Amino acid sequence: MFALHLYFLNPIFLQSVENPASQQADRINRLFNYFNIAAGCMLLLVIFLVVYICIKFKQKKGDTNDPVQTSGNKKLEALMIGGPTLLLAFFFYQTIATMKSVAPGVPKGRQPDIIITGHQWWWEVDYPAAHVVAANEVHLPIGKQLLMEMRSADVIHDWWVPQLGNKMDLVPGRSNYLWLNIHNPGTYIGACSEFCGAQHAWMRINVIAQNEDDFNKWLTANAKDAVQPADELAVKGAELIQSKSCGSCHRIVGTTATSNVGPDLTHLASRQTLLTGLMENNETNLYKWISHPQEVKPGAHMPDFNLDKDSVNAIVHYLEELK
Ligand code: CUA
């Protein structure tokens, strides 16, 4: 009992389809529960009939006659055909209605609010109207019907945040669309749900849902260029990023680094986690990562540059300033 209690208090349990947090998840959860109730009733009925029939029609001592043979009970047949037909019709209707509500299609000319691009092994998050590009932590406003365009830069990935509703594949060469209307502020955890290579397991999703004010504040802060390095060590770090060609994979807006092969670093220091949820975003972890990327996240596309301690220190110091 105690263990069960702990289980239900576990935050992992709360990140469940049974704890829906968006309009879309509510609809899917309702349908799921209809199925659960119907299947549960069916199970109880079958258990009851098996037990009842076993007791009632048990062969009596000394009775060697065959049971009474009957066939063609019209009422029973009508019930056994009609019952499941009605049940199927109900679920067919409910399924279509849920699909229509969760994925109503995209009206002509409607631009996406957010573009999510799956990469091996991180998420690019694009807010086209505000010209903001972020990575891995997906900030979203609550109470709005958001249209999310899903793309892939390499292989098939799959977006799934259980509390926020349906999954959506990110397929190279095409766009899929997902509607999302989140009820309350909070952090919602998900993960890539389609095997996509060595670090598939470390392709977590962190959705940070905020009320409109907080979200707009975040968006305004992230629309700014990267801050200028504040001291000598940071200047050295910024120079190293340029000379070691970090910019051929990363972008730091306002500098010569402009690529999106790897995550945008313009406001790296404002994120809570590093490497798609692999570890907390702090100086020690950043140091570990830049010193030996392949030890921290084997298979990741960031090569080991064999930097000396001072260089790593300078780069980390600069990146720590990018709030
Ligand atoms: Cu991306 Cu699995």
Q: What would your notes on this structure say?
A:
- With 323 residues, the protein is α+β, with helices and mostly antiparallel strands.
- It is 39% helix and 17% strand.
- The protein has nine helices and twelve strands.
- The strands form four sheets. Strands 3-2-1-5-8 form a five-stranded mixed β-sheet. The chain has a three-stranded mixed β-sheet with strand order 4-10-9.
- Helix 6 packs across helix 9.
- The longest helix has 34 residues.
- The model has no long low-confidence stretch (mean pLDDT 90).
- Bound molecules: dinuclear copper ion.
Number of helices: 9
Coarse structural class: alpha+beta
Low-pLDDT windows of residues:
none
Proportion of β residues?
15-25%
What ligand species are in this complex? dinuclear copper ion
Order of helices and strands: HHHHEEEEEEEEEEHHEEHHH
How can the largest sheet be summarized? 5 strands, mixed
